[in-house]
Amino acid sequence: MTGTAGERRKVRRGLAAGAAVLLAAFSTAPALATPSATVAPASSGIAHSGTAAVPSAVAVSRPSSHGRGTLLSLTPLGRKSRAEIITQAQQAGLDARTAQHGVDVYRLTYRTTAPDGRPATASGLLVLPVGVGPRPLPPVVHSHGTLAYRGYAPSVAEGPDRAVSMVYASAGRVAIAPDYLGLGTGPGRHPFMDARSAAAASLDMLRAARSAAPRLGVTLDRTVSLTGFSQGGQVTMELGRELAHGADPRFRLGVLAPVGGPYDLHGSELPGMFDGRVNPRSAVFYVAFFLTAQNRLHPLYDKPDEVFRAPYADRVEDLFDGAHPAEAIAGKLPERIEDLLTDTWYHKLRQPSGALLDVLRANDHTCDWKPDPGVRITLYTATGDRDVPMANTLSCARNLERRGAAPRVIDQGSDANHYASFQRSQPLIARALPTAH
Predict the structure, then answer these.
(1) CATH domain 5-263+364-432 topology
(2) Residue of 284 and 60 predicted with greater confidence
(3) Helix (H, G, I), strand (E, B) or coil at 8
(4) Are 115 and 197 contacting, i.e. CB atoms less than 8 angstroms apart?
(5) The pTM is what?
């Protein structure tokens, strides 16, 4: 990473958890953490709640088990003071007025499943407040937005997703931020916009965090709050759906507070890419990422040149291998979707049918359920969002209402772009999340 400290701070302020803000910062990247990888036995007994410095070790837990959510390693990433948390949040354009405590930061590696059901591993971020005592702490899961580069995931990068998790934990909560499959230190490629596998990996991260907590001197409360931004909004709703349907009786759904989620790909997001509601460059990025990722899960085409025009057909799949930041990818793709796609696929996306329509519908059910009466649902959006149009959120609200729920929709205004909708929503979410009693 090059540049002055001031330039790096400017980068972090400009980076969003969603691809749109990454696209706006083509030549920059957030500073990456470089934690130790020293291995310690599972019985090492890492202490958290005291005042001692966090050890630089990885605790391995039950490595021979193949159960979902099994904790494989626990890597301390360091301790942050309240002042450091506030500074880092401000650099990301976030509000830290709820911060009260310092925090300890960890990376978890755990067992989960791939989209095809085969065993897989994934990583994620766990953040714990310092000095809050032995009482059970309420967990909050923050699901990040679109990331093409594995090195920007919360458990690896000192970026906005880690900053917001530290703010939430600093108020007296256990903050959990899954990296998702194929990002962070997880192997393989990221199955972008596969809501089912992202929610499964997030649920398994929650299980791994519950397993890690006792050795860190912490107990997790049963009620889990869920929030997330952009792609993470979709993941939030799908994970909420799973918890509401009893996917793990050890957890009970509490607050639901997603921001700017693409809940309606077929009816809102795709049409917005052709009628001007979605920024053209963002549309190119999302479509290229979505089609190459989904083709690995549900074959949509045999060869890239069936879908993508030259010269992009020869490079597009390699660009989304997890090793290329979005700002580097953008310079190798066209500015308009009609210059990216062949005529056949341009029209196919305008009027989806067959396997493509099946893929869209499979990811458009995240709001088709009814939470328990005690679950508070607030859907945040912005009229000015030109990455995930507000129509997505209104569609989600209608689906929830048809099933008897009463979601609240908050519009952050016509002057708020995609990331600004998150920046304006985050203080409201921080105050609405439960804290330790």
Answers:
(1) Rossmann fold (3.40.50)
(2) 284
(3) helix
(4) yes
(5) 0.88
